[in-house]
From TrEMBL:
Annotated keywords: Hydrolase, Metal-binding, Zinc
Superkingdom field: Bacteria
Protein name: Peptidase M20
InterPro entries per UniProt: Bact_exopeptidase_dim_dom, Peptidase_M20, Peptidase_M20_dimer, Peptidase_M20A
Amino acid sequence: MKNIIDLSQKLIRIESTADNKNGLYEVLEIAKKELKQFSVRTFEKNSTPSLLFSNIKNAKDFKILLNAHLDVIPGLKNQYKPLLKNGKLYGRGAQDMKATAACEILVFKELVNKVNYPLGLQLVTDEEIGGFNSAKYQIEKGIKADFVIAGEPTEFGINNEAKGIVWIKIIAKGKSSHGAYPWKGENAITKMISFLNILQKKYPVPSKESWTTTVNVSQISTSNKTTNKVPDNCEVVLDVRYVPLESEKIVKNVTSLIPKSFGYQILLKEPSQFTSENSKYIKLLKTETEKIIRRNVKTVYKHGGSDVRHFNQIGCEGITFGPIGDGMHTDNEWVSIKSLNHYYQILTKFLLSI
């Protein structure tokens, strides 16, 4: 247990944010030192490094691949000074997901020569901004697995489904005029408001957590900076989070609501995550988890994405699965120390039972 805490603290002390490239390399060096006796490959795309450890030199096709991201979102300065208090480890990345990464690193270290199948450990540094230069890049280089476990926070639920993402920019055009003579113009903002009212009726904000597609109006703007002028343009950006069942039709469903006089642009379309709960690996992980934590374990859905979605796109099964904690992306982030010990035991039992 001491080794898990010590390694977690070392990782948390590093400001490994997207805007601090040195921090990304530094945090990976800590992992390399811990696993210096094992085979490792280094990948890099757009100045974004990642590592792949394996028990078989130059292996590309793994039975099980442990995935951990060592990048974090920016935090307060004191969050890079890990704190142990009341059975909890506090710090930036404590829950998401440096402490979990420490567990994965140490489990790999213990078991790499005890399993008789290809086992990999993937350490990436850009999951928080999409995973395109680390996990996805490694996939483009031929890395794949029968089953991927990404150690994202799940409170020991087995996350087999997550929503996909579509970002859409919508442009309304109008006709400018003096604000005192609005009948001479055509207000683009008013036109956009009418559209947004229609959109809200189709995709109302749920009153509580719900496994449904949601649409968030994340940005609205106009070039008009004058009070006494009818604006002739208005843009909004929509953040659409769709359930896996709508993967093929989500773009059409949203864009069909846009008036023909408007323009639009698809800024991003990212796939959803899905692995059947009938997967033999999910069933096995569920069994081993229940033995350790002594309670029922369920498959759960998540509204945000992870690197698992990239593996799903090439036919790999995968889930996110992590210990107990809270405060992810906040100023009060923590992970339960007891649950880290349980997590280590669960991964060990799971990997040895395959």
